[in-house]
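Inputs:
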Amino acid sequence: MKRLNSFLDKHLIALLTLAALGLFVGMFIFYLSQGTTTLYGDSRSRLLIARRVFDSLTPGFTQLGAVWPPLPQILFLPTVWNNFFLYSGISGSLVSILSATLATYFLARMAHEISKSKFVATVTVLAFVLNPSFLYISTTPMTEPLFISMMIISTYFIWRWSKTNNIVYLPLAGIALIAVTLTRYDGWFLAVFSALIIPAITLLKRKSFSEIEGTFFLFSTVAFSGIVAWLIYNQLIYGNMLRFANGEGAAASAAIQTGTSALTRGDFIHSTLVYLSAASLNLSYVSLGVAFIAPFLILKTKKWQFLIPALILSTPILFNIISLFLGQSVLYTPQFKPFYFYNVRYGLLVLPLAALGYGIIADSLPNFFSSIRIKILIMVVLLLQITMLFTNKPKTLAEAEQWYYSPKGAEQQKLVSWLQTNKIGGFTLISTLANDTLLFDTRMPLKKIIYEGNGRFWQQATTQPQSIVQRIIVSPDVGDKVWKISLSNKHFFDGYKLDFSGTYFKVYDLQNTTNSPSYSVN
Amino acid sequence: MKNTKNKKISVIIPTLNGRRGVNDLTHQLGAALNKEKWEYELIYVDDHSTDDTLDYLNSIKEEFPVKTFTKQGKKGKIYSYLEGFQHSEGDIIVQLDADQLYSPEAIPAMIKGLDNFDIVVANRKLQNPSLFRKILNNGYRFIFGQLLLNLNFDFQSGLKVFKKEMLNHIALHTTQRIFNAGFLYLAKKAGYTIGLYDIAFFETTSKKSRLSQLTETFGLVFVALKLRLLPILPINVIPSQYTMLNAGIHYRQQHFITHTTLNRRNSAVTVLVSSQKLFLLGFAAVLVTSLILYWHLTLIVLFSTIVVLYFADLLFNVLIIFRSLITKPEIVVTEDEVANLQDETLPVVTVLCPLYKEESVLSQFIKAMSSFNYPKDKLQVLLLLEEDDTGTIEAAKRFGGGQPPFIQILIVPNSLPKTKPKALNYGLAHASGELVVIYDAEDIPETDQLKKAVIAFNRLGDKVFCLQAKLNFYNPRQNVLTRLFTAEYSSWFDLILNGLYSLNAPIPLGGTSNFFRKKGIEKLEGWDAFNVCEDCDLGLRLYKQGYRTALFNSTTYEEANSNLNNWIRQRSHWIKGYIQSFFIHLRSPGGFKKSLRQPNFLIFLLVVGGKTLSVFINPFLWMMTISYFVFRPFVGHLIESFYPAPIFYLGLFTLAVGNFIYLYNYMLGAANRGHWNLVKLGYLVPFYWLLMSFAAWKAVYQLFFKPYYWEKTNHGLHLKQIKA
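Outputs:
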């Protein structure tokens, strides 16, 4: 027993991490066999964005575009050039699995170093990795695992700095925050919050003003450099520093334009309820409760070491509520109007806080439970999570499937079949902002596609398509850019024949270039 | 005869069938030399005489100190001399033709001439010469004396006297025509002084025809031309194998006193050795040719190389900074350890402080030395004052009244080169301590620094015979320049050097607060008096010889340069020294231990070469970057065309992340040192880099035109400000 204890003392974190890695890989194999790893439309879009850096009429890093922060797509680059890695989604899944593993490692370290307890570290890790929504999304090329991982890493280093005063942890936390801010825009809020918490901690340590100022600059210079770089990139490439916010395809402007953000905009309570509902769908009510109880438990037990991580990890709640309140993002849950899933995965960002909350509770258990507490708590956590896993489909998976099997999704599959049957040799004009998933599913050669990122080719194709484009694909329901241009140019489709006409998609082929029959979806 | 007193004289005389002549010559020599009561030997090297010359000489060995040798090697007088030199045991060589044209009576006076000269030549004054001889002689003098060899005397003389040590330094030419002239020419070029002793000389009937004499003269012209084209190498002058005092180097007709026996190859006396010059010229030629023939491809290769090097430097920089911050490798001596140290166990420590025109900070320095908590009876502080620096000497003497007895004034004799390392070598020869430490005039070390160094040395093995204390400034807030300078120093000494130490890599020392075991520094032959960054050089040299430098937790505070011109002077001086050190250590790269785990030569290239090179290249790259963005419609495509896609992205990454990290190093350094208010000034560092680049180009100019010039940094500006 002593030998086992000694072994665990030395290797617990590694064992937990390895076990988590095994679990993530196992789940990946499972979901890959189910064909569900690329169900999310966003994941397919991101894979294609990365691919276009190599494979496009105009390849290069500018293909990363300005709609989404670029880091996930950059991380796909080492493998995405290969068709197998691209179309199986493994390029992105690898990043997610590694991110989830890193997240587990740092969460375990943090819990263990704060509590000095193997038990607390184990409980925290179990609560984290056994979440079904997280397990599913960790097998997909989505950004949440990377975001969560970098958030945990930055939190760990900020906590380490607060504990040791070693300044090396400030740039390390800053580097993780660069990754966070270049992964999701939510991360910007986290960076600001962290930049405020650093001087606050220094102040609480009763340091001089110059030290407060110095630590702030030391940390912020790194933490905000990702944001600054992104702003400079937008300015240099597009001449608009805020293009990601107000330009084409920007999520916030799209949400405002389409009115989808109106349900929560200006209503703080509704925004809070919607977000908490999303969080509960991903975490279960018990785990969400734990996430909320944990900070209060710190006040009660005075385990202050947990406070800083708990505060930082709670920022996604604040950010998402504020974002919904300001109408900058859209989130629907089945509990509220319009009663379906849309971006419910945002609720998963509370998971690290909930996992830490389990750890805090485990650490706070009175001593008289010591003999049985391990069994009880581990069983409770395991039962809760496993019950969710087997009784309900992970909500992230449900959300992904919802679109895939929606009427539009179904029509897209039909169009995919049609396009695969009716291949052409020439160029296809299509707006990728709205139709990346279609391109992914059809596996059309990207060098034969003309889209917004092709500069002069795009200019020529949208001004006089007949001179260059053999096929035009539009989706009028979302008002894609090609469709909008065609509306302002009555000769746009001159010479083209409508070969595929559906509720959501239309395909125009230049006449006399194809003998394929017309197709209509009713 | 002062310098030649108690020295043995070897007279070298080649013979060939000269039985009659050697009789008279030996007697004349004996008479002349016995008169002075000098110890001498007469070395006859016989070139296989067929008469009884050798028998005769052997027969008079009882009467005269004669040594006879039969020629072993090639025939000819030159080889006889060479063999004679080898057999000689004297300190002074008399090279004498046995043809009795030169009277031995002149020899004692010539030997005495060595008190003032390194060589004394019997300068034949032809009495009543024929017209042909006169024309020939004048032609000779003009061609060789004025045009070719600059030897305006009888350089073919058959009698000369010189110090034997010269034979170790001057390459002797075995060609009959050039033997004498070559020796004298090279000696003069090396800086040896030549004295002339006129002797009357009567024309003899030459056995050679006038035609052959003319032919010989023209042949000599070609040989002389060849001689002129040979590289002139510096020559070490070592007075004794037991001391480095007064040792020096002869080079470019100057005698430099360096007080070190350090070999010229390890010295900056020559910035580039021939092979390096050849390589650089070759490289430049290839570059220019390729630029002319394939300018675009050449620029692609050039920029790609630069990008890869910068990227490597970036990775290395990140590695050492993080290692420094995470592993905290410096030797930590606690206050308790210092408190528990018994005074009686402490070794004597010698402080070497070279001062030149430092009267303004002298009192501050003496106060700092007096503040050490080290027993003063075990402390020897040597103020190394230059003989011509009367201001500081006077000031030091004025302080003399109140000066503690452990502080001694040591006047460094006036000589070239006038550098700090020369003064240090001089000081080292007078140091009585077991440990030796260097401080600059404006230094204020922490009071327990000496004790900490003793503890650190005791803790470390013999392989570590150098300790470097950290350097920082006591006037960071004086102005923006001092603030940035402080951030830079904090980064360099606290982070980068510690990072290098953690990798067990070579460490370029800082110029002050270096502690040495005296035996160790003597073994290394002290400092290179020609290197204006002798500290950097020494750090590398000791590493190559298998020793290590360690860093320990004590700080010496210095004065940050607050004046821009003064700063540029100081910086160009340092950069010049780094360039010197780089080329010196490139001469023997094998000295760096090589392995995949310990690629020290690469580290040397990055730390000494890369950092220096980058300050030259940076302004051009910045200009190109700015042009790319500002004038993109005009030059964008051209600039992009120089960078193949992978290099372009690597370059972009290095540009953005690299510059950021180098800038951030300053911030980290300032924060690590507790200069929190300097952290935000990291954003101004790019302007500081521009100043560095300016200083770097000035350094290159000086390297070519004033290689040994020690650009003086003025100290005490902070005191002026305080007074103001």
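Remarks. The CA atoms of residues 17 and 49 of chain B lie 5 Å apart. The radius of gyration of chain B is 31 Å.
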